[in-house]
Amino acid sequence: MKPSGKFLIGIFALLLAGACALLWRGYQDAARRKSRAIAVEAERGWREAKERAEAQTQAAILLNTLEPYQKEIEHHFALERQRQFKGPMGTYLHYFNKLKYSGSSLRDRLPFMPRLPQAVAPPKEWDLSNFTQACSSVASEQHLDARSKALANHLLVAADGENFPVALLTEPTEAVAKLD
Q: What is the pLDDT of residues 98-129, one digit of tens each?
């Protein structure tokens, strides 16, 4: 028995519909994979930008923490460098450093220079590990304070987006952000 033309057209239509469905599903899967790859790439870029911004913030905090002690730190390392030399070069570096850093130590060592009423005795030797730890702890506390303030601001913006009364939430949110 020979199949009729309508039967063959029906089978061809079913095969064509199935092929179209498979092609459509493949297209959707490819689009999903592509959008997923785009989303992953966007998230990676966002994460890198966030890490870069955090690194710049931490570096700025650390530099701002160390800035008041810049002259003393330079003086310390100049003295350490000077100790490596003996003879005329050591003498030259001794007097050069004494003149260059006169604001930090020369006033306390010369008897005829006017002194401040509460002169603080500089340490005989710098304990760099304690100094570094103190600077790091101050910088981390400043960074955590800034992060908690940013979190409070982010929560207020999110509350505003959800149509909560921001005027009522601002003061309690800032009070909680200031708690340790």
A: 888 776 643 454 454 455 555 555 556 667 77
- C-alpha span between 107 and 91 (Å, rounded): 20
At a CB cut-off of 8 Å and minimum separation 6, what does 90 contact? 82
Residue with tokens 């509460």: 118
Is residue 162 in a domain?
A: yes
Q: What is the domain extent for residue 151?
A: 127-180
- 140 belongs to a structural domain: yes
Q: Is residue 163 part of a domain?
A: yes
Task: Compute CA distances 150 → 11, 101, 157, 167, whole Å.
Answer: 65, 40, 10, 17
Q: Which two tokens stand for residue 54?
A: 């955090």
Burial, 98: exposed, middle or buried (Cβ in 10 Å; 0-12, 13-18, 19+)?
middle
Residue 96 placed within a domain: no
* 177 within 8 A of 149, measured Cβ to Cβ: yes
- State the alpha helices, DSSP H only, in 67-86: 70-82
Domains in the chain, number: 1
